[in-house]
Amino acid sequence: MSGSHGSPQIQKRTLLIVFALNALLFVVLGIGGLAADSSALIANALDNASDAAVYLISFLAVGRALVWKQGAARFSGVMLLVFAAGVLIDAGRRWWFGTEPIGWTMMGLAVVAAIINLVCLELIRRQRSDDVNMKAAETFSLNDFAANGGILVAGALVMWLDQAWPDLVVGVLGSVPN
Q1: Over pLDDT 70: what percentage of the chain?
Q2: Which of 9, 138, 149, 151 has its CA 20 to 30 A from that of 40?
Q3: What would the 3-class secondary structure string for the chain be?
Q4: Measuring CA to CA, how many Å separate 71 from each of 42, 45, 68, 78, 92?
Q5: How many C-beta atoms surround the C-beta of residue 90 within 10 A?
């Protein structure tokens, strides 16, 4: 693997760790999003679910032929589009029927998720790999970290304005595939 400083076994271990962390974030943010009535948290939870799937696919792709890796990347892209459609439908439902997101919960979970995403990003960057799946994993973690900042701002705006629209806007923006 040219340009790679980590062995395939170390890459696999890293991908398993970030898979587990993202699967955990999916569960925690999903439960928190439902409890807080937050489109932004639910969108982030689904993004973490798709990222977890991507990391698992990337784990399986380590050491395989480029065509297999490209197929895995294509599958990941389709999955992101499916999740995005679901979030857009949910945000539309919330806009139509109303929602009362809880800003403090949004902000607290955004901070927790940001810390975990920084850990994932650091683990992936340590690999210094040119592998397409490792580069994609790095991009996903960086985008997730940025999305956590958006949820933090949305939570503050929900509390300050006593309005649901910041949550809905961030939920819709969070549904845009990485």
Answers
A1: 94
A2: 138
A3: CCCCCCCHHHHHHHHHHHHHHHHHHHHHHHHHHHHHCCHHHHHHHHHHHHHHHHHHHHHHHCCCCHHHHHHHHHHHHHHHHHHHHHHHHHHHHHHHHCCCCCHHHHHHHHHHHHHHHHHHHHHHHCCCCCCHHHHHHHHHHHHHHHHHHHHHHHHHHHHHHCCCHHHHHHHHHHCCCC
A4: 27, 24, 5, 11, 32
A5: 20
Within 13 A of 19's CA, how many CA atoms are on the CB side? 16
Q: What is the pLDDT of residues 88-137, one digit of tens each?
A: 887 788 888 878 899 999 999 999 999 999 999 999 999 887 777 778 78
State the pTM of this model: 0.83
Residues 170, 85, 62: CA angle, nearest 5 degrees: 95
What's the one-letter identity of residue 118?
Answer: L
